Structures are given as structure tokens and as C-alpha cells.
Automatic annotation (TrEMBL):
Gene (name only): Wrap73
InterPro entries: Centrosome-WD_assoc, Quino_amine_DH_bsu, WD40/YVTN_repeat-like_dom_sf, WD40_rpt
Pfam families: WD40
Organism: Galbula dea
Protein name: WRP73 protein
One GO CC term on file: MWP complex
Length: 447
């Protein structure tokens, strides 16, 4: 493993280009585009204000920078650095901005969710989509880029509209049987649209492309409901994480529950491997001690190293009781992610903040648990193989694969607290992000 030096960053804004050749990052109002391998600066763009969101076009030729406070989007071209585009939403304001799948249209959502404006970079034409709903996940594109679903709210009812992305014509418009629609997500094959209700109501609805209701699923009533949703890459399973600390798996044939995964505070199964992170201080031979100590020796004297021990079951995990009288209590399944080969599912139960649970999807059993010293901030699967990277707000990155577990210290000067991870599409490197810095970690490829 090799690490780059620390690069300045603001707002956790760093993205690999879809073609894998460039890495874009933001420092206040500057956009820096680097070569992925050498980290040489290829382009430097200056925006009109502090950047709050960046996104690559699907063909990696353009990059969008949104400045929500000013209601402005600026678009930069990598091929023609002199070309530029500025979209000003004026008094309508701006709350979100994204690319269409063709990389030639920009969708801007105005303040108070009055409308979505579709701007064409090619023809300079403008289209409007009215009544978009203010929710977690209100716009969803199919993986092939042909269709877009938009959650809408009009006359105090929830609707979904499906548009054809080639000409923005309305294909279907139907109402949903939800109290307060919270999010929508297409299956990876683009055949089924999942729509789920507010956390106050456990309900998930599955629609076909032509707007037919295929199935509705409710696990229970009169309690906090759905917290997170994830499709498997094969579109065969839909995982639903809820506030009752369980994950339910629906199958794509009947849309009924196949199984549910519980997240108890004590692990008793002897078939589950529990990796526990332990810290140890390095031992230093007294003969090597000099005064004043050399810089390398000083850093090794005061740094603690981390490794994994395999715990004997039963194992009790650190359980945090949620505060009952607050909104958005820290409880239930807050993170879910399938591995790219469909074999594993990683989950995090917010009641047990220091643990990552890894489930074997073929056997529908708990495979491993990683118990960390600090709370899990983020985890992400390698896009090419079942390898999970985890960060906990420390200067270490943790890697799990079916072969075992590894804790790696990032060799940096000063404080580098990793709160987010982003894999390169090749799986050969990843960007480690802290509040103010970025470091690229290069992994040796296994031959």
C-alpha cells in the first residue's frame, strides 16, 4: 500500500471521474483536477463563490460546480479550458443540481421545491418539471440512462412521474399510496421502482416501468419504520433496514420477505468470526533512546498501532440506548451496502455504533462482525471484488475481505481524521477524505 501526501480539501468534495483518469477536488472556491496516477494538476478553475457540490458528467468531459447560496451553477470543460457555462437561477434560488445521464443536460431544483429546471448545454433550451417533492431521494435515473422518476407532491397527495430522458416527455404519471413519500430508487436492471414512506409509517411500494403496483410490503405498524434501502447489484434482492434494528430481504419473484437479519448486542453463533480492534503501543529498545529523540523515533514512541484480534464467542458489543425524546434517534439500520459480486451485505446498526456486520447472502447467515474502537463513519465496497473499506474518524483505514481483516495507519504528519472513503472504479486506489484534507491510497494489485 502506498499513500500520497495530504492535499487540501473543503466540504468533503472530491470525486474520481467516471473514466477513472482524473480526480477532482475543491478548496473553497477553487476546483482542482488532477491526474489519478501522478496527482499532477491538469486544470485549475476558479468559481464565483464557495463550491458546495461537484459532479462529473457521465463521459468525464465536463464538471459541474454548484454554489447553492448564490443560486449559481458553473460548468467547466476539460477538453476546452476556455469554454465555460454559468447558469443563474436568480430569485428562484437553488437547493440541488445534478447531471442527466447523457452528460449534456443539467437538472436544477429551485428553493421550496417549486420546480426542476432542465437546462440543455447543446441547444440552450430549458424545460420545467413542476411540483417536485422535498424528500431524501426525490429524483432517480435508471442505470441505462433512459428513464427518470420524479417524486411529486400536489393537492396534499404523493405522485410519481416517469420521464423519457432523450426528450423529457412524460411517460407515466400515477399516485402512490403513501402518507409522506420519503424516497425512490430504481433496481439496477431498471425494471422496478421502489418507493418508501416516511419513517412514521412502515411501507415500501414496488412499481413497474408502466406504473403498475407490483407489490406493497409492510413489516409492522405503529412504530418507526424504514431507515435505509439498498438493491443488490443483480436486482434479485431488496434489503430494507428499519428502526427496529433488523434488515429484511425481499426477493424479486414474489416480493415477499425471504429472511430477516437481527443485530443483537451479544453474538453467540460459533460460525460467526468476530474481529476486535485492539491498540498496542510499540516497544522501543532502551539502547536506541537518545535525547532529544530523532523525529522518526519520537513519532513511533507516541503513536499507537492497531490490529485485529479474533474474539471468542459469546461476544458482547457496546450498545448505546437511544434518547427517546429527540427527533431522528440514533437507532436502527443506518447503513446498508451489497458487495459488487452479490455475495455479501454490510450493515451498521446505529444502536451499536462501533460495529460493522457482514452477512453471507448465499447462505443468508451472519459471516463476520468487525468491532472497532471508534464509531463507524463510513464504509464502501471495492467495485471489483468483495473487499470492504471502513473508516472511523481516525487516521486509520480498515479493510475486510473473506480472507481476513487489516488495519492500516496512514503515515501523515499531524491530525488526519478519515470520515469518508471513495473507491476508484478499478479498485486499485481510493480517496480518503477528512474535513480539511484528502489522501490517495494506492493498493497493490494481486496478480
Amino acid at each position: 500500500m502506498n499513500f500520497s501526501e495530504l492535499l487540501k480539501l473543503s466540504g468533503l468534495l472530491s470525486r474520481f471521474s467516471p473514466d477513472g483518469k482524473c480526480l477532482a477536488s475543491c478548496v473553497q472556491y477553487r476546483l482542482v483536477v488532477r491526474d489519478v496516477n501522478s496527482l499532477q494538476i491538469l486544470q485549475l478553475y476558479t468559481c464565483l463563490d464557495q463550491i458546495q457540490h461537484i459532479e462529473w458528467s457521465s463521459d468525464s468531459l465536463f464538471i459541474l460546480c454548484a454554489m447553492y447560496k448564490r443560486g449559481i451553477v458553473q460548468v467547466w470543460s476539460l477538453e476546452q479550458p476556455d469554454w465555460h457555462c454559468k447558469i443563474d437561477e436568480g430569485s428562484a434560488g437553488l437547493v440541488s443540481s445534478c447531471w442527466s445521464p447523457d452528460g449534456r443536460h443539467i437538472l436544477n431544483t429551485t428553493e421550496f421545491h417549486l420546480r426542476i429546471t432542465v437546462w440543455s448545454l447543446c441547444t440552450k433550451s430549458v424545460s420545467y418539471i413542476k411540483y417536485p417533492k422535498a424528500c431524501q431521494q426525490g429524483v432517480a435515473f435508471t442505470r441505462d440512462g433512459r428513464y427518470m422518476a420524479v417524486a411529486e407532491r400536489r393537492d396534499c397527495k404523493d405522485f410519481i412521474s416517469i420521464f423519457v430522458c432523450s426528450d423529457w416527455q412524460l411517460l407515466r404519471h400515477f399516485d402512490t399510496d403513501t402518507q409522506d413519500l420519503s424516497g425512490i430508487e430504481w433496481s439496477p436492471n431498471g425494471c422496478v421502482l421502489a418507493a418508501w414512506d416516511t419513517c412514521l409509517e412502515y411501507k415500501i411500494l414496488l412499481y413497474s416501468l408502466d406504473g403498475r403496483l407490483l407489490s406493497a410490503y409492510r413489516a409492522y405498524e405503529w412504530s418507526l419504520g424504514i431507515k435505509s434501502v439498498a438493491w443488490s447489484p443483480s436486482s434479485q434482492f431488496l434489503a430494507i433496514g428499519s428502526y427496529d434494528e433488523k434488515v429484511r430481504i425481499l426477493n424479486h419473484v414474489t416480493w415477499k420477505k425471504m429472511t430477516e437479519f437481527e443485530h443483537p448486542a451479544t453474538i453467540v453463533s460459533t460460525k460467526t468470526i468476530v474481529y476486535k480492534e485492539v491498540e498496542k503501543s510499540p516497544s522501543v529498545e532502551t539502547e536506541r533512546l537518545s535525547f532529544p529523540p530523532t523525529r522518526a523515533l519520537a513519532s513511533s514512541l507516541f503513536s499507537t498501532q492497531s490490529k485485529y484480534d479474533i474474539s471468542q464467542v459469546p461476544v458482547s458489543l457496546q450498545y448505546v440506548k437511544p434518547v427517546a425524546d429527540r427527533a431522528n434517534p440514533k437507532m436502527g439500520i443506518g447503513m446498508l451496502a451489497f458487495s459488487p459480486d452479490n455475495c455479501f451485505l454490510a450493515t451498521k446498526n446505529d444502536n451499536i455504533p462501533n460495529a460493522v456486520w457482514i452477512w453471507d447472502i448465499q447462505k443468508l447467515k451472519l459471516f463476520a462482525v468487525l468491532e472497532q474502537l471508534c464509531a463507524i463513519q463510513s464504509f464502501q465496497w471495492d467495485p471489483r471484488q468483495p473487499r470492504l473499506a471502513v473508516c472511523t474518524g481516525t487516521s486509520r483505514v480498515y479493510l475486510w475481505s473473506p480472507a481476513g481483516c487489516l488495519a492500516v495507519q496512514v503515515p501523515t504528519e499531524g491530525d488526519f481524521q478519515i470520515v469518508s472513503i471513495s473507491w476508484h472504479s478499478s479498485g486499485d486506489s481510493m480517496a480518503l477524505l477528512s474535513k480539511d484534507n484528502l489522501c490517495v491510497c494506492y493498493l497493490e494489485r494481486e496478480e
